Queue: 4 jobs
Job 1
Amino acid sequence: MHNKKAFLLSIGTLLLSPLVFSSQAIAQETVNVLLQEWRIVTDVKEVKSGPVKINVQNRGRETHEIVVLKTDLPHDQLPLLPQGGIDEAHTGTVIDEIEDVREGSRQSLSLFLKPGRYVILCNMTEMENDKLEVHYSMGMRQPLIVN
């Protein structure tokens, strides 16, 4: 009887141990992103690979967007399209984005990021007083390193 109890206890431990280890393995990184004219501020510059939550708050007066782009290019040297904005299709891999982050709003993205270099940017372009505003070119970009 003692051997049967020990055997059942061992089986139970084996069955439950993946649950213990998996809860430790899915610890989520967080990046808080603040949008303003004409900048993006993040509270961290580097996160561990895996689940990453990106919390976005727009404290500016303009509507912005957030694009998370994986690229090997420097964050401030991405090629621009003739009409302004970066060429998302040929600059790297768009992981995800939130369009139309309005003044005062908060939104979030839950992503799984692999190791590499990323850029968090606003790729909006608009005409303002007969002048083309390219949010990326005006400074709305921030690098993020994922280890």
Job 2
Amino acid sequence: MLFYSIKIPQQKHFKHLNLLEYMEYNKERGEIYLDKELNNLDKFVLDFVSLLDDYVIVSGYVSILTGRSRATEDIDLLIPKMSFEGFQELWKRIENNGFECINTSDIEEAFDMLSDHAIRFARKGKGVPNMEFKIISNEVHEYSFNNKIKLHIRDRHFYISPLEMQIAYKLYLGSDKDLEDAKHLYELFKEKLDRNKLKSLVDNFNASENLELISKNE
């Protein structure tokens, strides 16, 4: 069994963001296990995704959760296309558990908006943090959803896109923040990544130069 334990050093200047003690990665099963003190952002994510059936998280939050020291106000989440009836049921479940859509309070308007772009949910009365809620709409989304991995955090869990896609997409976006997110994940998991898969995804995004940039010290 391909099972790895990684000791994560504390970063004193960011204790409010980064209290990760250790991490284990079971490559064979595609599961990550974390032990860390849950902060408000972690609790927000875990509480929200517990209301969903099918989803995948695809944002920089994964880098933060695994030790990257930066703040974020939103988390990107993808869900399969659903009927209005299905959305209506989910909307009620979300509202009944202390969350609200910050784009609109009208369910029909929210459903119409979702067909074109993301809508956002936050705890009632608060704008941040918020969940950027998107319908799967392209091949990148489909790949992330169909190949998602399970991330355990203490006695709870949620699903994230595969590490190779997380890195490749961040390299494609190419901002300083995104490159640092990609570098963090690459350095942390480089002994466990599927290098052929990563290269293929990076090539598809035409981001080979950025991969060379974050791996140049190897």
Job 3
Amino acid sequence: MISESISTGTAWLLNVRYNHNIWAFTAPPDPEQTEFTVEDYTRTYLRDTFASTLTLQELQIDVLEYAPTIDWIEYALPQTTEFISQKILILNKAGREVSEPLLLLLSNRKTNGGFAGAKKYPSNNRDTAFALQSLRAVDYPDQDIIDSAISFLSSTQNPDGGFGASPSTVYETSLTYLSLVGQTTDATVLGNAINYLSSTQLPDGSWEDDPYSTALALRALASVKPNLSISSTDITFSNPTPAVGDTITITATIKNTGPAPADNVLVQFFDGDPLAGGVPIGETTITSIPSFGTSQAGINYTIPTASSHTIFVKIDPLNIIESLYSKNIANKKEYLDTMNLRGSFGDAVNITYMQVTMFTKFIPT
């Protein structure tokens, strides 16, 4: 159902561009007209162009379809939080500089954790959602700013599952969902938002017969994916003091903070860096990791020598699972306190740290 909605919605969205670089018209323009001014465009041309470009990036549509649009956006000078945030998202995905619009965005943050459309206005749901998306995309380091924005947004959901000033709207629900997914593990908040969007699509594939609402709803539906992760504290040993030749069990707890389950998750264990001659210990497949849940993978390991060992764990090494907000090859190194393991002749067998390596498929945001 969701895949069909995405297919029909994308076709509609591309069809209403009318062979121009931006989404600026409600109907095909006069083919004899070769030059256009702002007066020729719809009042929502900036909004529709930013949202549509983000959607094409998210759905991995051929960049040749919209490369001139990205050039146009780079030189545009938006002044509101909505468009500043979207400019950051688009340019960041395209590998272009975002420092100046990021500073402008942060100037619109309020003391309650939300963001306003501009400095002189109060914070609101829509602008906070836009700001949170762009801060996450650039890996903004101040987690307090991120957490306060999440709390502000989560408190504003309506009884019908949507977001926005009552009644709920498709675009505010989509925006808020996209901001919260991968940030909160509240299945009720995220699930109700998706149910609201699924129930409001029109028979022609659009939402509200509107490019902006359709683009945002498509992005939200396309984000119903798992989000797999692991840290060093998620790895444990069955016996902290084995001798050389003893067999212990290494257990890795894999977390899924995404709104969809992950099935057939391959987990591999190595003694040493697999990219530098590390020795495979073994592998196992987790049948399913539920949304917002965890599952464990375990493997037996016989202590080979009285020496230091580095344990590597790979999640989905073949890049089969489409996962949220993941880098193609993400090395996450987190070190535990030294584990002193005594050998049979009193020699120390040390696992001095565990280095966790996560490989998951890149899905643009």
Job 4
Amino acid sequence: MGKLKNNQNGFGAIEGLLVLVIVVMIAGVGWYVYKATQKTNGAYFAATTTNLQTSPKFAKVTKKTSPTTSTTTVKTADPYAGWTSYTLSKEKLSFKYPSSLTISDTTKTADSGDSVTLSGSGGFKMYISTGLFDFSLPNGGATVDSAVPVTFAGQNGYIDLYEGGSQKTGVVNIVGLSKSATDPSDLFTSKNATTSSNGRINIDVQYIDVSGNQLAKSVSVIQNDPNYKNAVLIIGSMKY
């Protein structure tokens, strides 16, 4: 009976040792799994954080400030700066003219209309007549070589560069204001110079030599003449 007791005691010691080994193994495996899990989670967290920082969807939003735009106002030069104003005594039509031109008003008290001449260099003459009852084109009619749109006293008109005859040669001798781009005789009607419905306003430009003869010039020469350009501005400034 005593021998059996010893065996039982030996078996219990071995069994306890095995249990201890198993416990240690389980603890070791658990520790390893725990550390591995911690390492994996750390790497995942770091990667996720990096992705969030670099992802366009979750990237840090930086407020952009729009560049300040400045508006520059460009002032157009006044073509009439320094010009003198003049009003026709009969027609009561006002206009402006530059100092490069001299004005001569030969209107008489008894006249039914105005008679004013603006003179410049190169034989330039700008005639302004109002209250006309008769106006005729050169013998053989006239041909308009060029018609420049212009506003006259709030009305649409044309500055016709024309020559006598039916042939267009490009050389003209008269530049006149009319209501038509093809008919230089279609003049504007006077408002105040005469009570007649036939009263007309005649404004034309001619070039006269020292002998009083009318000079013919090409369209391009006339249109490049500063005096002609001023004549266009003068007509454009006319108003009642």
